[in-house]
Amino acid sequence: MTTYVLVHGAWHGAWCWNEVVPSLEAAGHTVITPELPGSGADSTPASEVTLEAYANKLVEVLDQQDEKVVLVGHSMGGLAISAAAELRPDKIGALVYLSGFLPQSGQSLLSLEESNPHSSVPPALEVAEDGVTGSLKAEKIRELFYHDCSDEDYEYSIAHHHAQALAPLATLVEISDENFGSVDRYYILLTEDRAIHPDMQRQMIDASPCKEVFEIASSHSAFYSKKAELVEIIQKINV
Prior knowledge:
By secondary structure, this protein is of the alpha/beta class. The chain is built from ten helices and nine strands. It has helices at 21-26, 51-63, 77-87, 109-114, 138-145, 151-160, 167-170, 198-207, 222-225, 227-236, and strands spanning 3-7, 30-32, 69-74, 92-98, 125-127, 133-136, 164-165, 185-190, 212-216. Helix 2 (51-63) packs across helix 3. The longest helix is centred in the first third of the chain and has 13 residues, at 51-63.
């Protein structure tokens, strides 16, 4: 059986995996869903949230494991797992990007967005007066993240959304072929995604080829709308 570490994206927390975890555990796997600093139930002040802090949180989790894990990053979580892979490549059996930002060295989430042919999230972003955090316009959230999800899942998610620290989004990811590049990469492409358009996902895959690419006809939130299909694909990636 495999240990899966599932990493959430921006404006989310470990809560977004609640409907995926039971299925993976029922199949005999170990599942860990860390809260990135300043997200979900984690109380780190937004002013102290950095990409380095994200990576260090994942390193803590990795160092507690006796065997290699499959590290899954959703959306912005792709940056966090990439940074962690640079620090602990020997602890990771595979990296999985679930409509995740897949950077090359020297890129940030914001620099990747600049090359996005269908940018949709930045126009919906409202930056706080202090410039430290950003929130999404309420009327845009369902369209961007949950357009094919049930009302129940949408309402649950909205109740848990909170402001996102912006510093990690602007930080350049420094990764090397020797460390990050030594770990097998997989990509789960969401073909109905309105937050990270499929063309953008393919653009990142072309720049950083993966061992295998899977596709799900889903919005950005496949952990709700296509959870059974997502669980099936995740289990195909094991160590």
